[in-house]
Fold this protein.
Amino acid sequence: MANLLSINNYYYRRGGAEVVFLEQNKIFEQLGWNITPFSMKHDKNEPTEWQNYFVNEIEYGASYGWRHKLINALKIIYSWEAKNKLQSLIDMIEPDAAHLHNIYHHLSPSVLPLLKKNGIPTVMTLHDLKLLCPAYLMLDESGICEKCKGGHVYNVVTNNCMKQSFPLSSLIFMETLVHRLLKIYKKNIDTFILPSQFYLNKFIAWGWEPDRLIHIPNFVNTTALRPDYQPGEYFVFFGRLSKEKGVRTLIQAASEANVELKIVGRGPQEEELKILAASLDANVTFLGFRTGAALHQVISNARAVVLPSEWYENAPMSVMESYALGKPVIGANIGGIPELIRDGDTGITFQSGNVESLIMSLIQFKRMRNSAVVEMGKSARQWVEAEYSVEKYAERLLNLYSGLGVKNIMGLPSMSQKKMPALPVV
């Protein structure tokens, strides 16, 4: 029976990375593996017997005194606490492998040389572009930004990329500089997992070694989601209400196309978007945050789901969840979105950030025969069952672990997904 050390900053469903991290743990528990999490203490954490080994909570948006802020700033670069606590955990469980997700800032890469020193095969799923772009998004006020390519990471300071704050941007620059000089990621991780082919290609284009990268798509628990192919009248967006998500463009397009739009989620742009919708007299309803059955009901009653992103999305879980519910997707042709949409079969794509292009897509779906929308939904469901299932994901990871020489790997039994909860909106 293999012991897997599973590492992520947060141990609750905070975002897409946490969803994959927690659900992956459950998958491998079903396979008979011993899963030991290593994370940060937080009052929202799921219960675990390993919480005493977790590092103390750090919330960088919280109000701290100057001394506490200085300590937290140093932890971003190197956390001795994380290193020491992880060593104690390794001594106890003797892991056969380690799988990391997001460790930036809170745990820090201080844990990586430790894993290497202990001879533990280590993989890391890259959920964002942090290792290329210090500010994660490759986005500035004018749109897509790749100024840091070629090692020019000083741009994070000159452009004030981190929340338009010079002190914060300077700190992140120092973090990036130190970690790159030490090659702390490249020297200590055996394989990096990219959930989208787009991200894999982007890392190669920025100079990373292809043989250290592998594309393993995300997954969705299809048996937990019942499809409803009957198309409704409205369109729906669900996700974070922030600039990079392109919701402003969507509201403008929905107004011009004269279609009904429902928006699920919260975020920093929420009030601004509500004012915009009111000024356009658009038929837009803001439903706030929803998850589980309440969210699925909104999606199931829609005509299609819209992803109007204006940044390099990785592999949005919202596409897979929509497909599992039998709904086609209208997606921006940016980042990893196009590889998840078979144009004219499971949905359609439009030019990212282009209101006119999105208007045409919405009108196309509005006028489309219901029978054609149903067929798209069925194709979407069939595709996600075939390529993005829990079994497929587990098989791909097991093959990767085996190739890295992980010991005590059990075979891939026939797994039942029925006990696994559906993924929430993030």
